[in-house]
Amino acid sequence: TLYSNASTTLSKLTTIRDLFQPDDLFAALPAIEDFFKENPVRQFTPVEREVFEGIKGNLRAKKFLTDLLASLKTPVLKVQIAGLVHQLEWLTDEEYRELLYSQVKPLLKHPVTFENTDILCRLNRNNVDIKITDIDVRLFRSAEGTRALRCLTPTDPEIQLKFAEILKKMKPGQETSAGSNAYDIYQNAASFLRESDLVDSRVQIAVVDLLKHPLEEIRYHAFYSLKRNPILDLKVQLALLEILKTPRIQESGDPAGLSADLLGHAQPKDPAIFSELFVMLQSANEDQASAAVNALGDINPKDPETLSKLTEILQDNDRHRAYRAVTVFRLIAKNNTGAQRVLAEFLVGSNREVADRVASDFWNNELTDEESISKVAAFIRKEWNNAGSHVQWTIRQLRPKSPKILEAIRDIDPKFEIDWIRLEQ
To answer: CB 94: neighbour CB atoms within 10 A?
Structure first.
């Protein structure tokens, strides 16, 4: 019944209340423990909480479980029962943490044995959070020590920094020497960072620095470690910006490309970031300009100030700079109403050179904003037959699929060949 998807939480709590007799309790413990792991007490409704209070008030069951907890010597069993007793609110948060520490600390003595590591890995889902002061630093120099720490995945920034340092010191060749101590340490460190919640800005900056590592594999480990975490601190975003300025490399895992992606993930808001990106966008350094295009494309800015600045560059007399802005607009236009409206404004504007820039680079995007679509459709109806308007050329470059725009074309010029789409008759 406790494992049935058809049973409600309330009905399962009622079953547990009935099972909470010392004679029946021992056999039911695994199922009860699983229930409370999947249904934390804090999420109970008032009615469910009332039934839970009845379970919690069963003094015979409490004595049975607390006596059992005190008698257990095996760390895994002791921690499992402690978790249930804690869920039943018979252990305080502080008492539960102290018990976990008491079971884990002896297993982390240097040198950590294979057997102790296996035990620690079985404890890894019990919120055992250790600190750098709880462990011997020699654990970071052994395969079993790093495997044990990887299983526990502590959140202490000092421990996370130690693992980042391990990757930083890796040299070409070590990461492929399977079976060696250095190789196992490297794999454990990489997995630890990729599985950890890296929220401390010092740790994030240390991992950002790994994006410059000569080993492609480590650059990707750093990238995915950061990608699973929010990057909110301006110092970390500025560190990514510095990586963005590095010369591009012609291989997978280009640091600037990874940094551009991560800046998109970070979604920066600070003007200092965008000020630097616009300097790069207009730079004579093609690598930096290209990196800025990619970063802005990944960030997908929607605020009027950033779009206005991009609009200024789009109208630049320098064609190279102008086309960079057009490319950014092309990258962000799909889900960006503001960007589509800027582009539509130029498509129907009097500056045909700028309109041609927009049309020639925007063809593989589709206008979805109704205001922009209506503007282009009205432009077609008004200007289609005007000499020198270049509307037909613009439309061929734009390749629109919007029914409203296609209808305007058919109305004004039924013989115009729309060869990029098959119209349903």
So the answer is: 8
Q: How far apart are CA 135 and CA 269, in angstroms?
A: 39
Residue with tokens 């297993």: 107
Retrieve residue 143's tokens: 């395969």
Cβ 142 vs Cβ 111: under 8 Å: yes
CA 345 to each of CA 304, 341, 372, 408: distance values in angstroms, whole numbers, following the listed order: 15, 6, 8, 18
User: Which amino acid, one-letter code, is at 328?
Assistant: V
Tokens encoding 154? 């502590």
Give, to the nearest 10 degrees, the angle between helix 59-71 and helix 22-38.
Answer: 80
Taking the C-alpha atoms of residue 253 and residue 255, their distance in angstroms, rounded to an integer, is 6
Q: Give the residue from 119, 87, 90, 85 showing the smallest Cα distance to 105.
A: 119
**CB 93 within 8 Å of CB 120:** no
Buried b (16+ CB within 10 A) or exposed e, 37-47: eebeeeebeee
The one-letter amino acid code at 371 reads: E
Rounded to 10 degrees, the C-alpha dihedral 208/209/211/217 comes to: -110
Neighbours of 335 (CB within 10 A): 10
DSSP label of 138: G
User: Tens digit of pLDDT for each residue in 300-309?
Assistant: 999 999 999 9
Using one digit for the tens of pLDDT, what is the confidence trace for 3-57? Answer: 888 899 999 999 999 888 767 788 888 899 889 988 989 999 999 999 999 999 9
Residue 290: φ, ψ to 5°:
-65, -40
Question: Tens digits of per-residue pLDDT, 136-162?
Answer: 999 999 999 999 999 888 999 999 999
